Amino acid sequence: MTDLWLISVPLDKTSLTSVEKLKRTIAKTNLASCCKFSIPDLKVGILDNLLSTSDDLFKLDTLTESVIKKTCQCMKEVMEHSTDKVLENALANGVDLMSYVTKFQWDKAKYPTALPLSSLADIINKEVSQVETELKSRAAAYNSVKTSLQSLEHKLDGNLLTCCLSDIVRKEDLVVSEYLTTLLVVVSRGSYLQWERTYESLSEFVVPRSSRKLHEDGEGGVFSVTLFKRAVCEFKAKAQESKFTVREYSFDLEEKRQQEMKQLSVHKKEQYGIFVRWLKVNFSQVFIAWIHLKALRVFVESVLRYGLPVNYQALLLQTDSKRSKKLREELASLFMHLDPTATASKTDVSCDIPGLCQQEYFSYICFHINTNVLEIS
After folding, report:
1. Which of 48-57, 241-250, 284-293, 365-374 has the lowest mean pLDDT?
2. Is the pLDDT of residue 365 over 80?
3. In this predicted model, what pLDDT tens digit does every residue of 197-224 receive, in sequence order?
4. At 163, phi and psi to the nearest 5?
5. Up-side HSE of residue 324: CA atoms within 13 Å toward CB?
6. Is there a contact between 149 and 268 (Cβ–Cβ < 8 Å)?
7. pLDDT for 374
8. Helix H segments across 97-203?
9. How far lies 167's CA from each of 164, 219, 285, 319, in Å?
10. Cβ neighbours of residue 331 under 8 Å, at least 6 residues apart?
11. Inter-residue contact 279 to 71 (CB < 8 Å)
12. Residue partners of 262: CB distance under 8 A and separation at least 6
């Protein structure tokens, strides 16, 4: 599993030397890949407000990551867990997510740098909240169509009591006249003999020797029986007492059920296309907002930690869980001068808490970009 760390160090002489050492070390040891993470000059505003802004950004980070997970999970379910299809659609600005993050450029048109930090956070919050709300309603609507179709398909492909009989019953199997009608009766395998012996006696208006077996499966069979229409209610009641089940059937009813399934199938296909396009666009939108949010957090924490004037460098480190511990040790050694008392806790460095790993403190600023949000590999 890939680990992405967004770190920030001040641009003092010692730190710059440490950054160069870090680049040389990871190049030799393959501990990670490293690239600059470009963050524009943002408005600091009133320094006293930065602490509350930091807390607000953390909460928004948590919300945004949650919405990304929900959107991706919904994409997986709609695409029936096809990893290839999800990867094709889980993009940011038309490129794969790793490329977007490693080549990140701040979108000044969408998030004007002249705005206060709180206003930028509000823009992201509105975007994310709107997607979360719409995702719920769109998912519910799509799942309703999908469930209705699955329910109907289950009935039509189910047992003899519900399955489709259009391929079993022919028009010549049914007698329909002014006085006569044909009923279809489901009889269990163990009751075949009982049916043959008793069906004529279930009503005095049953046509003798009119029963024929039309279909059977492992559990039982469908038998036809012809009788006078006036005796249908009496026959059904007597049949139920003998544990024979009369199926409601007509060619018109069967055609109606087939037409309903066809319409639902077409409707689901239409909704699928619309929903997938919406998921693709809005997944991209929220993911882009999330990375901008990470950049905001780096900026705010850098000002709080390193002070004014704003003078820091952000780096994106890409490693994996096997190399994480060694990389942490290397970073701790290189940047110990920033805070000699800082020591990482013994908790897992790749914690899934969004943003800053709250159970750890490092001499440098570090945010974790949780690659588990996709859960597609």
Report:
1. 365-374
2. yes
3. 999 999 999 999 999 999 998 889 999 9
4. -65, 160
5. 16
6. yes
7. 54
8. 97-102, 117-156, 192-198
9. 7, 19, 49, 59
10. 7, 22, 362, 364
11. yes
12. none
CB 100 within 8 A of CB 92: yes
Amino acid identity for residue 51 in this structure: L
CA angle 268, 64, 342 (to 5 degrees): 150
Cα–Cα distance for residue pair 284/290, rounded to 1 Å: 10
Q: Measured between alpha carbons, how far is residue 275 from residues 92, 94, 158, 212, 278 in Å?
A: 17, 18, 29, 49, 5
Return d(Cα 191, Cα 243) in angstroms, integer: 9
Q: Could you check whether the bond before residue 309 is cis, i.e. omega within 30 degrees of 0?
A: yes
DSSP string, 64-107: HHHHHHHHHHHHHHHTTT-HHHHHHH--BTTB-HHHHHHT----
Q: How many residues does the chain have?
A: 377
pLDDT at 351: 38
CB 15 within 8 A of CB 335: yes
Going by the DSSP 8-state scheme, the letter that residue 248 receives in this structure is P
How far is it, in rounded angstroms, from Cα 25 to Cα 58?
A: 32
Q: Please report, for residues 38, 182, 255, the alpha-carbon distance to residue 249 in angstroms, rounded to integers and kept in the order given.
A: 70, 9, 10
d(CA 119, CA 113): 10
> CA nearest 92: which of 84, 83, 101?
101
Nearest to 370 by CA among 25, 72, 123: 72
The answer to whether 21 touches 9, Cβ cutoff 8 Å, is no
